[in-house]
Design brief:
Pfam families: Mur_ligase, Mur_ligase_C, Mur_ligase_M. Keywords: ATP-binding, Cell cycle, Cell division, Cell shape, Cell wall biogenesis/degradation, Cytoplasm, Ligase, Nucleotide-binding, Peptidoglycan synthesis. The protein folds into three domains: about 90 residues, Udp-n-acetylmuramoylalanyl-d-glutamate--2,6- Diaminopimelate Ligase, Chain: A, domain 1; about 210 residues, 3-Layer(aba) Sandwich (UDP-N-acetylmuramoyl-L-alanine:D-glutamate ligase), CATH 3.40.1190.10; about 140 residues, Alpha-Beta Complex (Protein-Tyrosine Phosphatase, Chain A). About 35% of the residues lie in helices and about 20% in strands. The strands form four sheets. The protein has a nine-stranded mixed β-sheet, with helices on both faces. A six-stranded mixed β-sheet has the order 16-17-21-18-19-20, sandwiched between helices. The relative contact order is 0.09.
Amino acid sequence: MINKTLIEIKNMINAYELKEKFNDIIINGVSKDTRTITKGQLYIPIIGENFDGHDFIYKAIENGAVATFWNKNHPIPDIDFPFIVVDDTLKAIQKLSKEYRDSLDLKVIGITGSNGKTSTKDILSSILKTKYKTYKTKGNLNNELGVPLTLLSLSEDTEIAVIEMGMSSLGEIELLTNIASPDVAIITNIGTAHLQDLKTKENIIKAKLEIVKGLNNNGLFIYHGDDEDLKKAVNKLNINQKKLTFGKNKLNDYIIEEISTDKDGINFKIKNNISEEFSLPMIGSHQMFNTTAAIAVAKYFDLSFNDIQKGLNNLELTSMRNELIHGKCFDILNDSYNSNLDSSKAAIKTLYSLNNYNQKILVFGDMLELGDKEIDMHREIGELIDFNKIDYLFTFGNLANYTAEAAKRKTNKKIIFSFDDKNKLTSKLEEVLEEGSIIVLKGSRGMKLEEIAKNLLS
């Protein structure tokens, strides 16, 4: 993590004010949260819609802060404490993280995409750790504040940082990539996420392609080559950096061929200059694409086949992302961190492929932030469900009711249940649940479907 004197911090961000007597105080990391701040850290008071971090300065000091950024428009409390006065505390931490990142001798890999960002990050980090000191974005710290916090968490001897970059509107990825200055940029895919704000696929592509604006001139750009719209947009940009594509299409640089998939994982082949077969202990054939993007980066950094497979065998995955949980007589595949049309289709396809279970149950929650077509998209999910391949559908939420209604037109069996109460849903699940079952939880973060897993396992 960043370890600097306050005068160094002041100079790095061109701050307005810091009393000279505090110049030599050293900070050990930064924090925006007084609940988790630790001794020796620099406090960053952020102004949100419903809160102002400046109001919690005394709590920050009590819990160990040794200095703080301070918005110049806020009155400075009458206490003897190091206040580094800035125009805007958010812009100040962004500037600090940019300066800190540029001071480090490391490589940065930026990852964006509609789906698969976190899985790709986790897979790639696990592979790179076999050879390099690697750091990755923790949790969902992938926005205008999260990326700076991630960069400021890097130790000075980090060799490679894997940085996830999220967005909801145009301009956000451009900001993040200019802060992180990636040496490698990845677009995992383009899907239906962000339609509420961006309206069209063309705008989503435009927003995701902002990642190349901060890409090192000698860097590498990797993207999903099966998407013709994305490929056309890339060609129009005349990107000068090296480009590699991945996908099933035979024109890709890294061509994916599935061999087998079951509850223990996926076996697949990648054809590049040579053909290599990999084993991935993750459920869902869509994970082949995320893994192939990661493997392309690994080869760029000279990792061997053995290094790559060793990394795949020792994955460290973020919770609630295709997380397989074993109960006493059933399994739960918890994929409830995020949801949109494409990722939901992938989850259903994954459930279909799990043939080693006696019973298959889908628990489907609302897909949020999909814009004007959200009802049609929920109906589309219901229309595509094949009840020859799953045994029960449980829905949770108002939008998911449209999924249930569409699905009921396909069967007269009493195997579809809708709820707005998780306890009642859990009780009905327990009633129908048989030994040797698999339950897939799929819904947006706001639906908190992980609570159903907790109820079932308690």
